[in-house]
Amino acid sequence: FKKVKVHKDCHIRYLKNLYSVPYKYVGEILLLTATSTTIDIYREHVLIASHCRSYKDKDIVTKTNHIPPNAKAFLSRGPQWCAEEAEQIGPYCLKVIHTMLSDAVIDKLKAAQKVISLQKKYGPSRLEAACHRAVKHQCIDLKALKIILQDGADYQQIEDEAAFDLIGDRKSTRLN
């Protein structure tokens, strides 16, 4: 038995995994029971959610009917989607996304989604250049990437051959 709090994302944390509960319980303290096969969540001795127990680290177990309708789009853009989008942008963007999503303590899915969305405003080449700069300076953070892009620091020369490829990509994108 363990007392757990329902977070804003409609999930409770048990060990390294997240399990969903109906969204109307956000912010409440509930009681969790765990067996070798199930995770059951109770409110005032009434079962409100039950899941098969996952032994995979950092797993997110979600039932779609637990999520409010306006949040379902957020879930469809999960870690796998972020990684696939980042891979299309470039290797440094992919490294940024993997680093953000590998943090066991903080769920950075929303930040990772926002990183991917920066390509709409700045384009994939500039985002990749900003990610390259962030990786090089070990400052992998959404706020840092926004500052790099807003200040045009992604245009500044990076001392390796990849910088020339990125600049070339930017110019060919503008010419098209």
Q: How would you describe what is shown here?
A:
With about 180 residues, the chain is α+β, with helices and mostly antiparallel strands. It is about 45% helix and about 20% strand. The protein contains 7 helices and 7 strands; from the N terminus they run E-E-E-E-E-E-E-H-H-H-H-H-H-H. The strands form 2 sheets. Strands 1-4-5-6 form a 4-stranded antiparallel beta sheet, with no helix packed on it. A 3-stranded mixed beta sheet has the order 2-3-7, with no helix packed on it. A hairpin with a 2-residue loop joins strand 2 (about 10-15) and strand 3. Helix 3 runs antiparallel to helix 4 (about 110-120) and helix 5 runs antiparallel to helix 7 (about 160-175). The radius of gyration is 20 Å and the shape is elongated.
Mean pLDDT: 84
Main pleated sheet: 4 strands, antiparallel
Uncertain segments: 160-164, 170-176
Provide the β-strand percentage band. 15-25%
Q: Tally the helices: what do you get? A: 7
User: What global shape is seen?
Assistant: elongated
**Order of SSEs:** EEEEEEEHHHHHHH
Structural topology:
Blueprint: E1 2-5, E2 11-14, E3 17-20, E4 29-34, E5 38-43, E6 46-52, E7 60-61, H1 72-76, H2 79-89, H3 91-101, H4 109-122, H5 124-136, H6 142-150, H7 161-175
Parallel strand pairs: 3-7
Antiparallel strand pairs: 1-4, 2-3, 4-5, 5-6
Helix pairs in contact: 2-3, 2-4, 3-4, 3-5, 4-5, 4-6, 5-6, 5-7
